[in-house]
Design a protein that fits this description.
Structural class: alpha/beta
Number of helices: 5
Oligomer: single chain
Order of helices and strands: HEHEEEHHEH
Amino acid sequence: MNSPRQFLASTFNPRLAYVGLGNIGLPVARNLTTYPSVGKLRVWNRTQDKYALIPDAEGVESVGDLFVDLDGETMVVFTSFPNDQAALKIYGDLYRAAGSVEEVSKVIFVDQSTLHPDTSSE
C-alpha cells in the first residue's frame, strides 16, 4: 500500500508558479527550483530584473502569462506581495488573465503575503 505522500506524488502533479519575487518570494522560489519533482517553475514579477537572481535558470520559466499552455492541468500559484494595493491589483490581473471561471477553478492560490483581513476576504 502506498503512503499518502506516494499517492499524492503519483496522482497530483500540478504545475507550480511563484508570483512576487521580493523578500519572501525570491528565497522560496530559489528553494523550489532545487526539487526535481517541481519541473519548470513558472515565475512572474513586476520587475524582470529579479529573474536573474534565481540561480537555476534552467529550472525556471519566466512568463508574462502564467496560464499559457496549461492544457487542463492544475496549477498551484504561490504569491507574496509587499502590500494590500499590490495584492489587489495583481490578483485582479491574474483573474482577468485566466479568462474564465473554468480556468480559475484549475488554479490553487497560496498567498504568503501579510495583508489586512479585509483585503484577504476580497
